[in-house]
Specification:
- The chain has about 375 residues and is α+β, with helices and mostly antiparallel strands.
- The chain folds into two domains: about 60 residues, Hypothetical Protein Ta0175, Chain: A, domain 2, CATH 3.90.1070; about 280 residues, no CATH class.
- Helix content is about 50%, strand content about 15%.
- The protein is built from ten helices and ten strands.
- It is elongated, with a radius of gyration of 24 Å.
């Protein structure tokens, strides 16, 4: 551990005296990227960061309160919204996800990559549709994080080479104090709305493309997708089918639209750090805890309904997500520094997002045909 020293007077950080009404400081330690104040909270521990966060943001720092080896530590870290150097982790994960989605797309198109690995490039429309909707979703978050001067990472794509879509999605991390409910709402809602817009574009393109020969003897050939109302409505408006005769299936680009809709709905579940939780937290404040308690019950109830009336199709998906939401809710939700209520216009956007989210829902996302 570094030796604790007084903070030089020239250092552009809040002085211990400026914290005196909220946090009594008895020692200070400089670090490579900030400073640690050792002391005792003089206010409710949950409110210390809310009270001091704006002061630290003015000086270019984010702050968090920890309890370390028997002491309370107010840890201030320099914040920056710029990107320093090449984000190699993001680049490598993105390229790995491109490869994984090309391989997954090869299964949908019936391309034999064992005979010619480069033949996987022929699955580029599928890979582009899947990665496209995920990227648009995450960059919606990222751009509004930058707009509200909140430090966030670039998207981390998650490759999964051996599943039917080649990925588990993508995430960004907000590494900052959230200034207000307004900024939390904007950042949270931007991803789903951008993702839905991308999903509509991909669906419009996908349903107008010709069907393909269903791959024989492969797992994807046995998958029957359950299309949400959003995709069903687009197909109906364009007069295009989503089901074909024996031996044929929709163009795999439609599967990319299905991914966009499914991911959007899951992200709008209001628990933990999911987008839906950010939106609901911005709307109702700490009352989100009641919402989070109800979510697992609803998902387990949906699973029970599917077992009782639908032969158990997709029930395991909602049981899994029921347990995941229990875990996510324990992680807590984002807590903005300014708890002022959001405007009526944002409440209207929230209502629209709810409707669009429900249009992305289907109780049986997929099932396996005999």
């Amino acid at each position: 551990m570094m030796e604790r020293v007084p903070v030089p007077a020239s250092t552009d950080i809040p002085s211990p005296e400026s914290l005196a009404d909220t946090f009594y400081v008895y020692d200070v330690e400089e670090t490579d990227d900030g400073v640690r104040y050792y002391g005792e909270p003089l206010a409710e521990k949950d409110s210390v960061v809310q009270q001091l966060g704006p002061l630290f943001r003015e000086h270019g720092y984010r702050v968090q309160l920890n309890y370390d080896t028997g002491e309370y530590v107010l840890e201030a870290t320099e914040r920056s919204t710029s990107i320093d150097g090449v984000p190699w982790t993001n680049v490598v994960l993105f390229l790995a996800t491109v490869t994984a989605t090309l391989l997954a797309g090869s299964r949908w198109y019936g391309i034999d990559v064992t005979a010619s690995p480069t033949a996987a490039l022929g699955a580029w429309p599928f890979a582009l549709s899947v990665i496209g909707v995920l990227a648009v979703h995450e960059f919606g978050h990222y751009l509004f994080s930058r707009y509200h001067d909140v430090q966030a990472t670039l998207p981390y794509f998650i490759p999964l080479p051996f599943n039917a879509i080649g990925t588990l999605g993508a995430v960004i991390r907000m590494k900052d104090n959230i200034p207000s409910r307004r900024s939390l709402f904007d950042i949270g809602v931007a991803g789903p709305l951008a993702g839905i817009a991308a999903t509509v574009v991909v669906a419009v393109i996908g349903v107008t493309l010709p069907p393909i020969q269903a791959p024989e003897g492969s797992l994807v050939g046995q998958i029957e997708l359950g299309y949400p109302l959003l995709i069903q409505g687009i197909a109906t408006l364009l007069g295009e089918p989503l089901r074909y005769g024996p031996g044929q299936m929709v163009n795999p680009v439609v599967v990319g639209a299905w991914v966009g809709a499914f991911v959007t709905f899951l992200n709008l579940i209001p628990v933990g750090q999911l987008d839906g939780a950010h939106v609901v937290r911005a709307l109702v404040g700490d009352r989100i805890s009641r919402v989070q308690q109800a979510v697992p019950l609803l998902l387990f109830g949906l699973a029970g309904y599917l077992v009782a009336f639908e032969g158990g199709r997709s029930a395991s998906i909602w049981v899994l997500w029921g347990f995941l939401t229990l875990i996510f809710s324990r992680a807590g939700s984002a807590k903005p520094l300014d708890e002022s209520s959001v405007s009526r216009s944002r409440q209207a956007v929230a209502a629209l997002t709810l409707v669009l989210g429900l249009l992305c829902f289907t109780p049986i996302p997929f099932s396996l045909t005999p």
